[in-house]
Design a protein that fits this description.
four-stranded antiparallel beta sheet; five-stranded mixed beta sheet; single chain; 1 helix; mainly beta; rod-shaped; 12 strands
Length: 153
């Protein structure tokens, strides 16, 4: 008897193994033949689910400014402009959020506040975060994972 198999990834490319470090779908096609010439085949689908915390990109923009008189929508657009969250396998996530904290002498102080509470002359730290829909794992809210400073004029 001889067993052979072929692994095909979601891009319809033949690969030598399943990459379990990234999410994706693979099809394994098995075929076996006996010494008498009889053959049998089967196909299995293997799905690797990406459970990692999403990563954020601010496209290098960490300092933004808005006017105190700007609408909530304008302030949110300034915060979100150019920000992307992705899973480890590169899927872009669109359902993400932020928390705003007052800054004093370069340090975050107090509790999260509403975007409607921003006042002129103040600087705030905006932490960006997102939840992986596959695992529920949320990206951390800190300087290493994604933030913007917002100065209110």
């Amino acid at each position: 008897s001889k067993l052979t198999y072929t692994i095909v990834n979601s891009s319809n490319q033949t690969v030598s193994s399943i990459d379990t470090s990234k999410g994706g779908t693979y099809t394994i096609k098995y075929s076996v033949s006996s010494s008498t010439g009889k053959t049998a085949s089967n196909t299995r689908t293997v799905t690797i689910t990406d459970l990692s915390a999403p990563t954020v990109s601010t496209n290098g923009v960490t300092e933004i400014s808005v006017n105190a008189s700007d609408s909530k929508a304008v302030k949110e657009e300034a915060i979100k402009n150019g920000v992307t969250f992705k899973t480890q396998n590169g899927t872009t996530l669109t359902d993400w959020s932020y928390e705003i904290y007052l800054m004093n002498q370069g340090q975050v102080v107090g509790n999260a506040i509403s975007i409607d509470s921003l006042t002129a002359g103040q600087t705030y730290r905006v932490y960006l975060y997102c939840k992986n829909p596959n695992s529920g794992v949320t990206s951390a809210r800190n300087e290493q994972t994604g933030y913007r400073n917002i100065t209110v004029r």
